[in-house]
C-alpha cells in the first residue's frame, strides 16, 4: 500500500489514489498546521482572553470585563506611547516614502555607479535596528557628538541634540528609522519603476510628455503594487517598534519616547502584570486587524467589479 | 530573363528630390550636453549617499580612538593615534554587570541559535511551500491565510502565551526554546517565499514527475529540492540576518545561558562604571553588525532579491 | 514620388557591438514599407532610431524633408504603435488618445475634434470611456493606433503591432491596417517577423539580416527574384527548395540528374562552379502536368501533409529533399512513385559560395 509510484490499471480508482497522496501532503505540513493553529490562532485568543481577566503575575481566569482596558487608557505611559506611535508612524511613513521614491526615481535615470549607490543606500538595512539606535545615539550625543563637532568648525550656536530634549527626542528616532529603512523602500520602488513596460516610456516620449509628468501621471499609478508593498512593510515595522527605541533612548528622556511595544514587554517582564500586558498587546493587534479587514473588503470589491466588467 | 540585374544587395540609391543639406545638417549622435538636471540628480544622490555613510564612518573612527581622544569631541576626525584596544576589549573583556567576557560568548550563542533555527525553518518551510503549491488539500488555503496573518501580527501579542507554552514544556529560557521561537516566527515569511517560488516553476515539470510515477516525497526530493537552490540561498540570507539582528526574542526567551550577540551588546552598552566607553561601545556595535554586513556585501544581489521576495507578502 | 523618410549612412553601436551599419534607405510619400527579418536582425532597432528613441552613432535621418537627426521624438512628425500596445493603463481610452495633446496645451475644441475623427476612423467611439484593462487585445491595438492618429502626423511607425494577438484577430487587423493606409495615404513603416503580414501589407519590403538590408523591393520581386539564398529561404512557406549542383556545359548536375539551364547568360562564365538551384514548391508540377515541363524526373513520396486547400508532399532528388505543392484533389500516399517536373526559366540560381543570385 505504500507503493504510489507504479500505477496498477484498475486497481484503485484515481480519486482514491490522489487522496492517499494528499494525505501525505497533510502529514508533511503537520508542523505548519500545528504552528499556525497553536501560535497564530490559539495563542492570540489566549492573549485576548487574558486581557479581560484579572491576571497579575500569573495568568488567571477571573473575568473582569473591560477593566484592564480602562486602566490601560488611564495610564500615562500608555497614553504617551500611543500618541508617540502615531507621530512616529506618520512621520516615518511619509518621510521614508518620499526619500525612498526620490532615490528610486533618481537611481532610474541611467546613472553611473548605480550598484555602488544601491549598496550604500541599502547597507543600513542589513544592520539591526538595535545597532542603528546605538550608532545614532552616539552621533547625536549632546556633549561629544555632531552638535559639538559642528560647533568646533565655527558654527558656534549650532544646536542639534534631539535625544536630550523630551520634545525633540522623537525626531532622533525618525532620523534613525529613516536611515535604516529608506534603502529598502528605494529598492522595492525601483523594482516597481523598472517593472513598467519600456514601451510605455517610448509611447510617452513620442507623445512628448515630459519625464516628470510621465512619472507623476503614468508610472506612479502603475506602481500601486510596489507602493502597497512598502506601505505594508512599513506599517508592520512601525507597530512593532521596539529595538530602535530601547537602544537609542531607552524610552527617555523620562518617558518621552515610550512605545506600545515597550509597554507590553515592560508589563510582562518588569511589572509582572499579565492582564495589562495582554490588554496592551490586544490594542496593538487592532490596527493590523483593521488593515486586514480593509484588505478583505478591497479584494471582495475588486472581485465584484471585475465580475461586472465581464457582463 | 536574366537575374543579374538584381545581383546588387543593399538599399536602392537615393531618389530624386532629397535634400541638399544632407551634407551640412545635423549628423551622427545627438550632442551630449550636461544639463543642470543631471548635475542636480548626481548632487542629490551624492549628498544622500554621504548621509547614509556617515554613521558607519563615525562608528569606525570612534572605535579606533582611545577614550581621551574621543572626549575631545571631534566626531568626524580620523584618529590621531590609531588603536585597536577598544576592539580587543569589546571582543573579550568588556563587562556586563559582574562578568567581563566581552562579546565573544554572545557571538558563540548567536551561532548556536542561528544555525539550527535556520536549518529547521528552511526545511519545514520548503516542504510547506511545496505541499501548498502542488498538493492543495482541503483547508490548505485557510491555513495559508493564517500564516500570512502570522507574518503581520505584532510579536508582542504572542510573547506571553509562548512563554507559558514553553514553560509548560520546560523549554523556557533554554537553547531549544529560543530555537523553536525563531523557527516558528520565521515560518510564515519563509513558507510564503517558497510557495511563491514553487508557483513560478512550470506546472508541467510537476506533471511530468507525476507521469513518471513519482509520488509526494520523490517529487519533492528528486525534482523540487534540486530546483530550490536559489530560493534556499535567499531564505538562508533572510533568516540568518533576521535571527542575528533579533533583540526582542533574545531578551524574552534566551535565558541567561544563551544570550545572543545583539543582547550581549545591549548589556555591554548599558553597563557603565562612571564614564561611558564610547570607543568600546562602537567597536562592539560594529562587531555585532559584522556578520549581517558581511552577508550583505558578499551576497549583494541575492540580498536585494531576498528583500524583494520577502516584500511579495504584501 | 516625393521622399517622406530617408536615412543616410546610419550606424548604431552599443559599445563595440555594431547593431546597424552604414544603412541607407528612402521611403516615398504615402508608401507602405515593411521591415522584415528574423529576431535580432535590427529591424526594431532601426525603427526606434527613426522614432528618435535611440541615439544613433553616425548618419542622418530626414522626415518630411526635415533633418530630424537631433530632434526629440515628439518633434519628428511621427506616430508610433507598439507590440504591447503601451496604453496608459489607468487612463480612459479618451484620455489615452488626448493625453499628449493636452500636455502640448492644444485647445480643447481641437483635441475633441481630433479624438472624434480618430474614433470615427477606427470605430472605437463606444469604448472612449473605458480603461485599457477592460478592452480586448484587438480593441487595445485599435486604441493604440488611434493614439498615433490624433497626432496628425505624416509618418506612422508600427513595431510588430499584431504579434500579441491570436491568429484570427491578426488577420482581421491586418486588413484594417491596410484599409487605414488606403484611406489616409500616410507613409507607414511597419516592422514584423511575419512574412504574411509583410507580403500582404507592403508596397515594398526591406528584408534585414544582421543589421544590413539584404533586399528592398516590392513583394512580387522579393518572392520571385530573391537576391540571395537568405532572402529566398526566408520568404515563402513551405520554403524554397535548394538543390545543390555543379555547372557543366550549360546544365547543372544535381545528384545525377541533369537540368539544362539554357538561356542563362552566366553558364559560360561560371563553368564548373558549384551552384544552388532554388525551386518554389508551387512551381513543381506532378503527374500528367509534369510532362509539359522542360525538366522531368521521378521520385518516391515520403511524407504527405494535407493542408485543406492544397497538399504539401516530400520527395527526393538523389539525396536532396524536395517539397512540392499539389492540388488537394490529387491523392498522394507515402511510398507512391510520382513523376514531377519544373521549368528552369522560373527557378532562381545562386552561387553556392557567396549565396548571391546569378
From TrEMBL, chain A:
One of its GO terms (cellular component) is plasma membrane. It is found in: Cell membrane. Coiled coil: none annotated. Keywords: Cell membrane, Membrane, Transmembrane, Transmembrane helix, Transport. One of its GO terms (biological process) is transmembrane transport. Its main location: membrane. InterPro entries: ABC_transporter_permease, MetI-like, MetI-like_sf. The chain crosses the membrane at residues 25-52, 85-108, 120-139, 169-193, 214-239, 245-265, 277-301. Residues 82-295 form the ABC transmembrane type-1 domain. Pfam families: BPD_transp_1. It is a multi-pass membrane protein. Belongs to the binding-protein-dependent transport system permease family. This is Sugar ABC transporter permease.
TrEMBL record, chain C:
The keyword ATP-binding applies. SMART domains: AAA. Gene3D superfamilies: 2.40.50.100, Nucleic acid-binding proteins (2.40.50.140), P-loop containing nucleotide triphosphate hydrolases (3.40.50.300). It comes from the Bacteria. It is a peripheral membrane protein. GO terms for cellular component: ATP-binding cassette (ABC) transporter complex, substrate-binding subunit-containing. GO terms for biological process: carbohydrate transport. It is found in: Cell inner membrane. InterPro entries: AAA+_ATPase, ABC_transporter-like_ATP-bd, ABC_transporter-like_CS, ABC_transpr_MalK-like, ABC_transpr_MalK/UgpC-like, Mo/tungstate-bd_C_term_dom, NA-bd_OB-fold, OB_MalK-like. Residues 5-235 form the ABC transporter domain. Keywords: ATP-binding, Nucleotide-binding, Transport. Its main location: membrane. One of its GO terms (molecular function) is ATP binding. Belongs to the ABC transporter superfamily. This is ABC transporter ATP-binding protein. It comes from Devosia nanyangense.
Amino acid at each position: 500500500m505504500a507503493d504510489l509510484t507504479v500505477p496498477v490499471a484498475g486497481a484503485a480508482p484515481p480519486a482514491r489514489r490522489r487522496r492517499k497522496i494528499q494525505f501525505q501532503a497533510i502529514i508533511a505540513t503537520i508542523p505548519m498546521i500545528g504552528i499556525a493553529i497553536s501560535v497564530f490562532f490559539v495563542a492570540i485568543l489566549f492573549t485576548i482572553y487574558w486581557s479581560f481577566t484579572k491576571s497579575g503575575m500569573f495568568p488567571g481566569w477571573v473575568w473582569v470585563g473591560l477593566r484592564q482596558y480602562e486602566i490601560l487608557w488611564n495610564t500615562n505611559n500608555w497614553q504617551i506611547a500611543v500618541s508617540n506611535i502615531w507621530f512616529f508612524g506618520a512621520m516615518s511613513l511619509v518621510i521614508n516614502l518620499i526619500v525612498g521614491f526620490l532615490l528610486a526615481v533618481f537611481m532610474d535615470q541611467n546613472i553611473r555607479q548605480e550598484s555602488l549607490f544601491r549598496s550604500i543606500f541599502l547597507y543600513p538595512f542589513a544592520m539591526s535596528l538595535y545597532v542603528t539606535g546605538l550608532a545614532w545615539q552616539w552621533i547625536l550625543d549632546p556633549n561629544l557628538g555632531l552638535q559639538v563637532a559642528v560647533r568646533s568648525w565655527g558654527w558656534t550656536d549650532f544646536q542639534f541634540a534631539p535625544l536630550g530634549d523630551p520634545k525633540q527626542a522623537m525626531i532622533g528616532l525618525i532620523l534613525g528609522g529613516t536611515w535604516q529603512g529608506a534603502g529598502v523602500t528605494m529598492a522595492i520602488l525601483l523594482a516597481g519603476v523598472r517593472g513598467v513596460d519600456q514601451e510605455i516610456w517610448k509611447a510617452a516620449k513620442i507623445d512628448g510628455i515630459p519625464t516628470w509628468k510621465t512619472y507623476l501621471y503614468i508610472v506612479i499609478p502603475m506602481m500601486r503594487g510596489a507602493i502597497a508593498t512598502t506601505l505594508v512593510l512599513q506599517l508592520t515595522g512601525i507597530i512593532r517598534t521596539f529595538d530602535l527605541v530601547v537602544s537609542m533612548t531607552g524610552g527617555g528622556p523620562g518617558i518621552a519616547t515610550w512605545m506600545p511595544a515597550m509597554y507590553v514587554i515592560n508589563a510582562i517582564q518588569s511589572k509582572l502584570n499579565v492582564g495589562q500586558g495582554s490588554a496592551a498587546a490586544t490594542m496593538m493587534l487592532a490596527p493590523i486587524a483593521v488593515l486586514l479587514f480593509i484588505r478583505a473588503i478591497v479584494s471582495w470589491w475588486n472581485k465584484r467589479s471585475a465580475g461586472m466588467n465581464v457582463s | 530573363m536574366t537575374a543579374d540585374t538584381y545581383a546588387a544587395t543593399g538599399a536602392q540609391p537615393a531618389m530624386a528630390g532629397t535634400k541638399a543639406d544632407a551634407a551640412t545638417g545635423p549628423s551622427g549622435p545627438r550632442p551630449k550636453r550636461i544639463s543642470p538636471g543631471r548635475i542636480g540628480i548626481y548632487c542629490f544622490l551624492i549628498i544622500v549617499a554621504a548621509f547614509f555613510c556617515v554613521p558607519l564612518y563615525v562608528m569606525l573612527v570612534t572605535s579606533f580612538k582611545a577614550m581621551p581622544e574621543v572626549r575631545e569631541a571631534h566626531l568626524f576626525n580620523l584618529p590621531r593615534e590609531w588603536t585597536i584596544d577598544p576592539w580587543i576589549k569589546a571582543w573579550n573583556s568588556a563587562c556586563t554587570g559582574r562578568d567581563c567576557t566581552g562579546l565573544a560568548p554572545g557571538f558563540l550563542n548567536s551561532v548556536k541559535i542561528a544555525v539550527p533555527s535556520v536549518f529547521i525553518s528552511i526545511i519545514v518551510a520548503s516542504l510547506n511551500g511545496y505541499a501548498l503549491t502542488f498538493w492543495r488539500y482541503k483547508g490548505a488555503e485557510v491555513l495559508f491565510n493564517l500564516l500570512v496573518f502570522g507574518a503581520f501580527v505584532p510579536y508582542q501579542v504572542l510573547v506571553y502565551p509562548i512563554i507559558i507554552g514553553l514553560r509548560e514544556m520546560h523549554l523556557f529560557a533554554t537553547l531549544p526554546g529560543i530555537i523553536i521561537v525563531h523557527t516558528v516566527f520565521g515560518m510564515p515569511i519563509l513558507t510564503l517565499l517558497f510557495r511563491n517560488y514553487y508557483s513560478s516553476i512550470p506546472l508541467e515539470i510537476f506533471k511530468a514527475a507525476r507521469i513518471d510515477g513519482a509520488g509526494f516525497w520523490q517529487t519533492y526530493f528528486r525534482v523540487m529540492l534540486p530546483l530550490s537552490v536559489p530560493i534556499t540561498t535567499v531564505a538562508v540570507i533572510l533568516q540568518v540576518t533576521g535571527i542575528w539582528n533579533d533583540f526582542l526574542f533574545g531578551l524574552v526567551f534566551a535565558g541567561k545561558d544563551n544570550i545572543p550577540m545583539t543582547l550581549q551588546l545591549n548589556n555591554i552598552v548599558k553597563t557603565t562604571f562612571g564614564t561611558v566607553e564610547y570607543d568600546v561601545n562602537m567597536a562592539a556595535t560594529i562587531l555585532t553588525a559584522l556578520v549581517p554586513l558581511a552577508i550583505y556585501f558578499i551576497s549583494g544581489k541575492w540580498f536585494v532579491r531576498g528583500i524583494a521576495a520577502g516584500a511579495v507578502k504584501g | 514620388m516625393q521622399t517622406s523618410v530617408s536615412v543616410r549612412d546610419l550606424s548604431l553601436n552599443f559599445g563595440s557591438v555594431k547593431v546597424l551599419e552604414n544603412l541607407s534607405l528612402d521611403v516615398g510619400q504615402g508608401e507602405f514599407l515593411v521591415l522584415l527579418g528574423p529576431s535580432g536582425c535590427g529591424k526594431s532597432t532601426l525603427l526606434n532610431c527613426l522614432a528618435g528613441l535611440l541615439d544613433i552613432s553616425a548618419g542622418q535621418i530626414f522626415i518630411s524633408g526635415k533633418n530630424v537627426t537631433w530632434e526629440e521624438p515628439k518633434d519628428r512628425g511621427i506616430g508610433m504603435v507598439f507590440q504591447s500596445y503601451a496604453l496608459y493603463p489607468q487612463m480612459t481610452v479618451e484620455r489615452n488618445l488626448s493625453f499628449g495633446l493636452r500636455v502640448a496645451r492644444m485647445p480643447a475644441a481641437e483635441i475633441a475634434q481630433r479624438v472624434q475623427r480618430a474614433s470615427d476612423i477606427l470605430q472605437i467611439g463606444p469604448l472612449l470611456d473605458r480603461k485599457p484593462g477592460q478592452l480586448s487585445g484587438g480593441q487595445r491595438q485599435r486604441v493604440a493606433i488611434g493614439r498615433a492618429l490624433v497626432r496628425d502626423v505624416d509618418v506612422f511607425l508600427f513595431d510588430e503591432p499584431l504579434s500579441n494577438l491570436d491568429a484570427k484577430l491578426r488577420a482581421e487587423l491586418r486588413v484594417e491596417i491596410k484599409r487605414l493606409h488606403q484611406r489616409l495615404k500616410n507613409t507607414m513603416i511597419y516592422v514584423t517577423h511575419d512574412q504574411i503580414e509583410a507580403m500582404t501589407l507592403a508596397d515594398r519590403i526591406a528584408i534585414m539580416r544582421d543589421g544590413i538590408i539584404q533586399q528592398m523591393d516590392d513583394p512580387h520581386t522579393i518572392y520571385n527574384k530573391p537576391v540571395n539564398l537568405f532572402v529566398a529561404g526566408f520568404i515563402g512557406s513551405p520554403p524554397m527548395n535548394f538543390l545543390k549542383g555543379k555547372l557543366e556545359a550549360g546544365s547543372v548536375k544535381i545528384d545525377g540528374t541533369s537540368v539544362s539551364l539554357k538561356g542563362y547568360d552566366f553558364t559560360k562564365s561560371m563553368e564548373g562552379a558549384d551552384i544552388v538551384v532554388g525551386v518554389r514548391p508551387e512551381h513543381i508540377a506532378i503527374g500528367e502536368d509534369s510532362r509539359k515541363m522542360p525538366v522531368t524526373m521521378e521520385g518516391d513520396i515520403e511524407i504527405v501533409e494535407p493542408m485543406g486547400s492544397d497538399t504539401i508532399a516530400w520527395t527526393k532528388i538523389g539525396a536532396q529533399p524536395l517539397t512540392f505543392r499539389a492540388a488537394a484533389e490529387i491523392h498522394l500516399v507515402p511510398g507512391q512513385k510520382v513523376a514531377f517536373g519544373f521549368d528552369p526559366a522560373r527557378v532562381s540560381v545562386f552561387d553556392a559560395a557567396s549565396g548571391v543570385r546569378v
